[in-house]
Write a structure and sequence with these properties.
Blueprint (H helix, E strand, L loop, with lengths): L5 H6 L7 E4 L3 E5 L7 E7 L6 H7 L2 H15 L6 E3 L15 E5 L2
Antiparallel strand pairs: 1-2, 2-3, 3-5, 4-5
The protein binds guanosine-5'-monophosphate.
Length: 105
């Protein structure tokens, strides 16, 4: 079940963030508390609470755009950790799907 949160406001530009890429489907921002030199958050613009919700409910176009964006950001670095937290019990703090791409390289 999706409810409004900080990323909803960032996507609407009601709250500032460091935007590094944007298109019709996705927004990429710098994490406010980076765990490495590069710590990008890839967000779909539409509201999905987590990866499971997205994979079950997003259109093919949305899914293609999201994973294409992840590919493009992975191609910027040599090594990276990619993380999806799914649910509070797994450490998810913001209930809007985001992929973490974390890289010092
Ligand atoms: P989660 O634990 O939900 O997977 O990760 C949430 C991430 O969002 C954390 O790494 C946290 O630092 C980041 N974050 C939380 N609030 C903000 C914010 O207002 N702006 C940005 N850019 N990142 C945020």
């Amino acid at each position: 079940m999706y409810s409004e949160n900080i990323f909803t406001k960032i996507i609407k530009k009601a709250i500032n963030s460091e935007v590094v890429f944007e298109n019709e489907y996705v927004l990429v921002i710098n994490d406010i508390a980076p765990k490495a030199k590069n710590h990008w958050l890839i967000l779909p613009k539409n509201n999905y609470s987590d990866l499971k919700d997205f994979l079950n409910n997003a259109s093919e176009d949305e899914q293609l755009a999201f994973f294409d964006c992840i590919k493009n950001f992975l191609n910027k670095v040599e090594y990276a950790n990619v993380q999806f937290n799914i649910g509070e019990k797994a450490g998810q703090e913001v209930m809007h799907l985001h992929a973490h791409i974390i890289s010092d390289y």
